[in-house]
């Protein structure tokens, strides 16, 4: 694994592998950085047409509601519990997708094919999941919900989360 930043690692091509040792390092990186998240990218660079990442979130961080015009995404739960919340254009909850690994009684995999606002609620102190989306990655291509609190607005986040029943 090659370290790109405190949050991003890259597995070396042509045959990428992630095992217990890499997951342990990923979780450690998530626990150690300010944003409490880290990822291992399986795709070689931001221009690749397919992006696959193993992502760890620690300490239940806030994910600002957003959507991805002309992209799809999927999650596969590896460790810990999370819920994907789908929201309409005004912030009304359309659906909740409780996720967790086998044995939790939750959905193991989900795929979002439409341009729908969503957020992710982390329910354990450490959550690891596999995310797949189409590239290339263009900074700023996620469309944030105008009613979604900013990352530094803790009071707004608490109000928003209470409003969606958290």
Question: Quick summary of this structure?
Answer:
Helices cover 14% and strands 37% of the residues. The chain is mainly beta. The chain has a single domain, classed as Sandwich (Jelly Rolls), CATH 2.60.120.10.
Architecture overview:
14% of the residues lie in helices and 37% in strands. The strands form 3 sheets. It has a 7-stranded mixed β-sheet with strand order 1-2-3-4-11-6-9, with helices on one face. With 166 residues, it is mostly beta strands. A hairpin with an 8-residue loop joins strand 3 and strand 4. It has a single domain, classed as Jelly Rolls (Sandwich). The chain has 2 helices and 12 strands, in the order E-E-H-E-E-E-E-E-E-E-E-E-E-H. It is globular and about 45 Å long.
């Amino acid at each position: 694994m090659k370290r790109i930043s405190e949050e991003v690692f890259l597995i070396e091509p042509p045959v990428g592998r992630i095992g217990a040792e890499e997951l342990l390092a990923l979780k450690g990186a998530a626990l150690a950085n300010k944003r409490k998240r880290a990822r291992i990218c399986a795709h070689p660079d931001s221009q690749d047409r397919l992006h696959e990442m193993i992502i760890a979130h620690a300490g239940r961080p806030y994910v600002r509601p957003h959507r991805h015009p002309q992209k799809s995404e999927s999650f596969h739960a590896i460790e810990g519990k999370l819920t994907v919340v789908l929201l309409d254009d005004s912030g009304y909850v359309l659906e909740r997708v409780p996720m967790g690994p086998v044995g939790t009684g939750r959905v193991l995999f989900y795929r979002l094919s439409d341009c729908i606002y969503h957020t992710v609620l982390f329910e354990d102190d450490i959550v690891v999941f596999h995310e797949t989306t189409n590239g290339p990655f263009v900074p700023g291509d996620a469309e944030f919900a105008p009613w979604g609190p900013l990352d530094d607005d803790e009071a707004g986040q608490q109000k928003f989360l209470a409003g969606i029943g958290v």
